[in-house]
Amino acid sequence: MEESLQSAAHYLAMGIEAGALLAIAAGLGGALILALRQRARQNDWSGTYDHLRRRVGRTLLIALEFLLAAEIARSIFAGETLNAALTLGVVVIVRTFLSIAIEMEISGRWPWNGAQHEQTHHDETRH
b/e per residue, 52-89, with b = 16+ CB within 10 A? Predict the structure, then answer.
């Protein structure tokens, strides 16, 4: 029974990782298509580049979520070993660091300053 659960968890994790690859492929393809359309309409390469970077960044964030889910699935059924817990801990730390870095690249601000930034922007546009 335990072996079949581990096998199922392994296949589940592989399926989730495949979903991450599909999300990356679809996200990058969609981002490129939208960037080319925008470039054709506006003839503004710098604005197109900024939008492309944001879309690619969001795609990578979604893929990181999939990969974290796959690692959790693997860890749950791997048995309660120190190695599985350490692996999951490292994945969570790396994912958190990458998410913060990507968010900083996308928005130009720290993720925890989002509400403050939105309020400041809202106040500026009202005046």
Answer: beebbbebbbbbbbbbbbbbebbbbbbeeeeebeeebe
H helix or E strand, kind and range, residue 41:
helix 2-42
Whole-angstrom Cα distance, residue 127 to residue 117?
A: 16
Q: Can you give the pLDDT at residue 18?
A: 96
d(CA 30, CA 81): 41
- Write the pLDDT tens digit of every residue in 22-32: 999 999 999 99
How many angstroms separate the CA atoms of 105 and 85, rounded? 30
Q: pTM for this one?
A: 0.72
Alpha-carbon gap, residue 68 to 92, rounded angstroms: 7
Q: What's the DSSP call for residue 50? A: H
pLDDT tens, position by position, 92-120: 898 888 888 888 888 877 777 765 555 55
